[in-house]
Amino acid sequence: MKKIVKKHYKFIIGLIIGIIISTTVTYGAENILSGSDVSYNTGTSHGSKNNIQGAIDELYEKADSCTPKDPIESNKCKVVTGTGKTLGDEIKCGSESFYVIENTTYKMVLFAKYNLEVGYNCVYDGHGYCNYEAIAKPSGLQSSSCDTMNCQVTDNVTDPSRDMEDGPKGDGKYKEALEKYEDYLRNTLKIKTATVSMADWRILNKVGCFSLGCSSMCNSGGCVYLVGSCNKTWVYNQGFQILIQKEPDIINYCPTKTILPAPFSMTPSGSVSNSTAPSANGTEYNNGLRAVVEITK
User: Fold this and answer.
1) How far is the first Cα of the chain from the last one, in angstroms, to the nearest whole number?
2) Domain around 109
3) Which of 8, 53, 87, 206 could pair with 36 in a Cys bridge, judged by C-beta atoms 3.0 to 4.6 Å apart?
4) Assigned domain for 78 exists
């Protein structure tokens, strides 16, 4: 409704003025009935004024205060590269940087430039081995320091919570971190219609960085997807975890196989790999948390 009012408010106001003129009776130079004298029923518009003059003033005020939900038009975000409408264009909202996946009349889909600062960082023990230690005060926001070895959401040695089957935010630590990030976008940056999810195969498929297919690589849990590759450096500037759920459109690729729902990773080299097996010291690699933000307009 607000969009309609903002788009056509001049026409609406003109229409009301026309009504006023038509209801104003003039005899000689003297008005015997003015627009302010004509009553106005507010039952439909829910306005606070009960005469036409007051209703017009109120409509002007509302039209001026209508804020577009597009974060660029409302100055909540600014364009860094390109137009902000093309795949791969960069925009910035507060301290957070995003790449545009899609920007239409009705919605905007953004891909976080960096992983979220959550989880564990790699601390080398002096012998070339990496010990993961929980980040003392994680910001929960994007960080350029969250490279391959840092900001790992889970550590299989100390934190086995890594089930990512339940919904677009995954589960466990993934879901918790994404919910906090969504709250930050909505309540701190005031992007009220933002919803946050985990990077999944659909997003990577849209940008040409993921392909599905059957693989002969099987284990006791079933068969995995074929690996893909990506030539867009802005996608894999940091390694991150990919959410793959058990859904018909995925399972139909391999109808005779059992498909593992997760986990996969986009590596810093641009390839998609199965990261089911932990490394020798029991930790996972490349499982940073990259957020996808959808904003309805």
Assistant:
1) 12
2) 99-296
3) 53
4) no
